[in-house]
Amino acid sequence: MFDDLFSIEGKVAVVTGGSRGIGEMIAAGFLAAGAKVYISSRKAEICDETARRLSEQFGGECISLPANLAELDGIEAFAAELARREERLDILVNNAGVSWGAPLDEFPEVGWDKVMDTNVKGVFFLTQKLLPLLRKAADADDPARVINVGSIDGIKTPVFETFSYGPSKAAVHHLTRVMAAHLVKENILVNAIAPGPFPTYMLSTGVGGRGDVENTDWDAVGRGNPRGRVGTPQDIAGIAIFLSSRAGAFTVGDVIVCDGGSVVSS
Fold this sequence. Notes:
Shape: globular
Number of helices: 9
Largest sheet: 7 strands, parallel
Number of domains: 1
Strand order of the largest sheet: 3-2-1-4-5-6-7
CATH class: Alpha Beta
Strand content: 5-15%
CATH architecture: 3-Layer(aba) Sandwich
Distance between the termini: 40 Å
């Protein structure tokens, strides 16, 4: 009855923004759990290298499909290529995201549009274009899954001057609920994860590490968190695996916070 409760072995997954950061952490967790994983990012060389490295590290099949998922042309090309390779898609993780920092009086339109296009429009239209593959994987006993990666900045006021980022993630959270209500009847379950501090390029740029993830003082960042540390790959991959497995088959339209207590303590 409880055998394979958290199993995703043999499932086909897509993780956007999977070449680094939280996307790479989720892709690694999926591979370790026996899934076949496609990762995507805009920079083909980095995406290819990450796929090669993860395949070697976990002995699974990680495939690079680079694309610009902030634009409809890139989304449609990605969906068409995936359909040429796979007959079904069990798990879609919409993780690709960007941020933009500038003082309020100087915040530019390009910083607004780029963030909204990538973080919100891209999530909606990629899910839309992959619905045929998700529908082929969906059944009542084992629904297909869509996991949108939001942020605690979409729940509480952001620390940094990233004025389009928090609103974009709040939009992702509500989009998750709206899409969940429409797709649950088709046995496609949509949920979101709202991460807090993790050792990523994006956070490194905000805490003074200038994007140098390896040399950022994550211990110092972690001391400001109620748990006393930043998140680990196991933390974020664990929730993604739960949402993708039998264990998460009755969870619909939720936004699960993964932040070490930041939101409840703020």
